[in-house]
Amino acid sequence: MLIQCTKSLLDQLGIKKSELYPPEVHEQFPNSFMAWHANFVSINRKKAIVLMNNETRYSIVIYRPSKKDFSKINELIREAITTALRMEGVRKEVIEAYMEKAGDITFSKTASRSMVAKMNSAVREIEFVQEYLDEKTRIQRYISMITGNFIQLSGKDPGFYPIEKMLKCLSLISGQEDHEAVEDVLEIDLYQLKIKINLEGHEIWRRVLVPYTYSFRHLHNIIQSVFDWHNAHLHEFVVERAERKDLKIMMDDDPETMEYLDLEAFENRQERFVGLEEIFPTYGEVVYEYDFGDSWVHTITLEKVVKSNEFRALFVEGIGERPPEDVGGEGGYEEYLRIISDVNHPEHEDMKIWAENQKERNISKEKINHRLKHIIKGYRYSYFL
Q: Domains of the chain, with CATH numbers?
């Protein structure tokens, strides 16, 4: 495996010019797939090593590397690639086969201005989503999942997504050439979750399948999508734990939010850095509250784990229409139902008009799953379906 480094990274590694391998012969597949460009940069005023695969432009971040990390850089690079691909659901056997074919890690200088430009573009994409950089983690788990879904353009060639090209290349080096082989490189545990709104007298729930490597930020996006919530209010997850403080998984670390934290009663973590796999195998139930004013409390229950070769969230089924946004909590919802069911009520017509943009829309299962296909990039309520 050839790591083609910028001068700034070579200086940090202390590699002499005489120890470098030739940068040539890694321009075409499959050699290009066995080579990565690497840079040593500052992101959010913190040092980072950015790796970008020559063929697929799939990028990986090693954040705030220490002196010790530079002394074991070969091991760290292999671990970073393995971690990123496992987060994408790639089978361990496929990753091991790739590592074996790529061979021992060697270093060279960068190949060309064109490749350096592509690497600089990868750095800018990472900077764009730098909120997902976890300062407590060396190998960043969630950055690659997002930037891997940023479309890449190159001259007159049609655009492509790095993760899709990465999976295709992994299938090709495994000796497969048909389309189905792309799925063959994947093996994912999907958590089957039942998400129920706790509203007495009403049966309102959704069942979804979610990759175990998703974060609670992803799960929030999924909940908003399958219930057609507007994503216009604050939210949080709470995990009850008998043996220690309950865990509060917060939406962000905004200073104003931090002012209201109860540090005595809860352990607090940011949702974009907490993986579902860290919680659900141990605690089968999580509480999600959306809109602290209306206080819509959802109970999320892990029903079972399903094996799949498709890395995406899926809506399975659901029952019941959720309450309208900003209806005024449980009491306001009951009042809304009373007025909307009485055509003779003096406020009936006004309530119907108000509810048009507040209530859940009748969205097909196919449309919901189309929205979930892109949920990893985030969720914003759209008035256009």
A: 2-184 (3.30.420), 188-322+360-377 (3.10.290.30)
